[in-house]
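Minutes, structural biology subgroup

Action item carried over from last meeting: produce the structure token record for DUF4405 domain-containing protein (Spirosoma arboris). EB confirmed the sequence was re-checked against the source entry. Recorded below for completeness.
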Amino acid sequence: MKSKNLVSLFVAAIFLVLAITGLLIYFGQGSHIVDHTHAWFGILFFVAAVFHIVNNWSSLVGYTKNRRTGAIQKEFILPAIVAVVFAAGIGFDVPVFDKLANAGKNLFRGDRPRGGPMEQTKVDSIANAVETAYATAYTKGDTGAIATILPVKTAILTEAGTILSGSDIQKNILKRTTPEVVKTKVDRAEALDDHMILVYGTATNSTATTPSVYTHLLKEQDKKWQIIAAQRAYPAVQ
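Output recorded by EB:
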């Protein structure tokens, strides 16, 4: 097995995946899986590129400068200029590069405003669906369903001022000895962007005498909406 052939094929295969995920991200069609795939294949591409450079060092040197005179080859100048121009333009946030970077997303987004791209009816529907699913799963003690809505790393600021995680909520459900019936009511929901919604609501618990107000930050990941941050408090007495 020839190492040069193997490395070249690795570079080609990895580049193909990077090209696909890069285009998906550029046109605003990325997701958690796409982002992670792009990141990991970027690392693989770096490793493969190092081996490729080592295997082809003499050829690359020949492409860069004339072996007899030591002068820089003309073929090297254009790629070097393009690389420097793009690096400087992106680094100094030149307007044309900023527009170019967002052209793909704007093409798919169209003229929709950035601050609230989703219709309010859709926002309300998503918010109510997530909150109802959470309340139902909590009431039933279904930790599996809870985990899909409230990830283990979700941070929750409670009424008492303590900070819990989604994992803590699951453990508390498993420890409880008396049934708890939780009901939620969405008072208001706002879209922060295409994939994030801020929900303000009121919740009641059969074990508590006073309802609490809550704020949930919902995020869409892999076409699933989850609560990624939460805050609960007792309403102030006027």
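Discussion: The helical segments are 3-26, 32-55, 57-64, 74-91, 95-109, 120-140, 143-149, 166-175.
Next step: EB to file the record with the rest of the batch.
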